[in-house]
Amino acid sequence: MKRYIPIVASLMVFSLISCGEVMDLTQPEKAEVTYSNITLSLYQTGKYDLYLDEPEYQYNIMVEKSHCEKEAKAKLAVVDAKEFGEEYHLLPVEYYDLDGNNFNFKGDDVLRMVNLRFHDLGTLDGSKKYVLGLKLVSDDLAVNQEKSTMTFFLQQKQGEIDNPYTVATTSDLITLGEKLKDGKTIYAKIENDIDLQGVDWQPIETSVSKQLVLDGGGHTIRNLKVNTSSSVNQGFFGLLVGKCSNINFENAQITANQKLTGVLAGHVGNASAAGVVENVRVSGTINLTSGTGPTAWENGQAGGICGRIQGAESKIYQCSSEMSINATWSAGGICGEAKGGATITQCYFVGDIITKSCVGGIVSRMFQGTVTHCYSSGVAKSYPNVTPPNPGAGIAGLVEPSPTALISHCYSECEIAAQNQVGGILGLANKGTGVTVTRCVAWNSSLYSNGAPKSGRVCGRFDKNEANNCYANPNMECRFSANTPAIVDEVVPNYSATVNGADRYNGLSTIPTLMAAVKALQWDESIWDLSGEKPRLVWELAQ
After folding, report:
1. HSE (CB half, 13 Å, CA atoms) of 181?
2. 33-67: per-residue pLDDT in tens?
């Protein structure tokens, strides 16, 4: 790319000008010109920003001699990069050409020009900042110090991976969505804690063609309030395509009607592109109301992190939710619905969930996907006497394999209640035989189903899916409708001992404590801290 500093472009034809071609630069009434007051100066000075994604820049640099007297020589010297700060590296000489870096003025010359060309910038290390400072020097004449230096700063364009947009104020955060560009992934980083008290937040809308990677830098956004919104999804993001990491939301208040709803996002990822959530902590309240029928069933999902996560490459990793969630339809402590092979791993929920449909301590409904190394504690209840009745559980309320689904290395201490099937880990495995539940611990204090004896300590209605190596609290109180069936220990489900034609899974109750059960299952101690009274995730204790 050829660049001309504007004042130079208009003077290019005067690359060499003599006194015979211009008016005398001195006035007759002024003092006689002497060599001591003749000076050299750059015609243009200042600072210029160059970007590494542009392969080439070109400038014409002109030097002026103040009077038509005296022969003189001058050149442009490179300034030490340390003068611009420790973060800058001197631009290596092989990335620029300074043609003819010698200004030879004859007695009647007043202007000279050289060409500066930057090239191959895309091959530089994009994680570094470079500088080239050029200073006019001469042994023959004085140099006007106010017009002696040009400085070129070179780095990745802002919004790129190595030079993200900085978000330091409430205004920066509010306008972040305006920086999204079609066909590009924009990078941004939060630099300070931000309080959104008094702001009626409008969700940031990413898309497959306008993705965002946001690094919270470990900072906290306080008092996020989302109430009135034109977005089809409700949260800090409406739809998150890209990645959000290292951020805390404290005292969030999210209110919605028949929308996918979560503190971080209504919807994470979709069928065409992934969404990744990593090291995000949320606390606050969600209130979601919905109508009736298929639309409410499809879109009325609430979760502490998000209402829905979708896609085989989409993931919620090392996140926590300490929330009070009230929803007309389905709700989960981390996510309302997971589908399309999404993964939830190393997450926990502490709080209470009250809903009129599916309820799960981690995820309410899962249509193909994986939940591993998660735990829940608190209350997860679905109101009775709702049509259609729906299940509840400490990890996942309803699972459909489509074709497979996995729950492993999870535990729950949630108090569970629902009108239909309940389980300490899984409520209902539906439509298929590709569900696997393994190495989990149902340490719930109580399970209650208003009308479904097809319930179990670990898994409720199971329909010949696979379960093994799970333990249950020997003191768990189980009330499964008016006719609670006999609850017996099972290493694996006993498919011949069905209840009303349906399988269920109770696991083993032979170990007296939660910690002992987890240790017996040999959970990975690089993921779990097993040194205290209860299992905790290593990452949460390191915060």
Report:
1. 10
2. 566 788 999 998 999 999 998 889 999 999 999 98
- Sign of the CA dihedral 326, 328, 333, 335? negative
Instruction: Yes or no: say if 138 and 74 are a contact pair by the CB < 8 Å rule.
Output: yes
Nearest to 22 by CA among 64, 73, 75, 70: 64
pLDDT at position 473: 97
State CA 130 to chain mean position distance: 28
The answer to whether the beta carbons of residues 390 and 382 sit under 8 Å apart is yes
Residue type, 221: I
468 token code pair: 């093994």
| Span 180-191, pLDDT tens digits | 999 999 999 999
Exposure letters 491-523 (e unless 16+ CB within 10 A, then b): eebeeeebbeebbbbbbbbebeebbebbeebeb
| Cα(17)–Cα(19) distance, integer angstroms | 7
DSSP designation for 336: E
- Report the alpha-carbon angle 346-212-48, nearest 5: 130
C-alpha angle 4-6-8 in degrees, rounded to nearest 5: 70
Give CA–CA dist 339/368, Å, rounded: 6
Q: How do the domains of the chain map onto residue ranges?
A: 6-155, 165-542
CA dist 268 and 210 (Å) reads 14
493 CB contacts (<8 Å, ≥6 apart)? 459, 462, 464, 465, 467, 503, 504, 505
**CA pair distance 336, 305, nearest whole angstrom:** 9
**Half-sphere exposure at residue 66, Cβ-oriented, CA atoms within 13 angstroms:** 16
The predicted-structure confidence for 77-108, as pLDDT tens digits, reads as follows 999 999 999 999 999 999 999 987 889 998 88
- The domain made up of 165-542 is a member of CATH 3.30.559.30: no
> Around Cβ 230, how many Cβ atoms within 10 Å?
8
Tokens of 100: 């003819």
Whether a cis peptide bond, with omega within 30° of 0, leads into 535 is: no
**Residue 206 contacts residue 237 (beta carbons within 8 Å):** yes
Query: Among 261-265, 451-455, 463-467, which is the least confidently predicted range?
Result: 451-455
Give the C-alpha separation, 44 to 47, whole Å. Answer: 10
Sign of the CA dihedral with 82 first, then 88, 93, and 96 last:
negative
Please give the average per-residue pLDDT across 146-158, as a whole number: 94
Q: Give CA–CA dist 191/247, Å, rounded.
A: 11
The answer to whether the CB of 457 falls within 8 A of the CB of 472 is yes
CATH number of 6-155: 2.60.40.1740
Residue whose structure tokens are 């978000």? 167
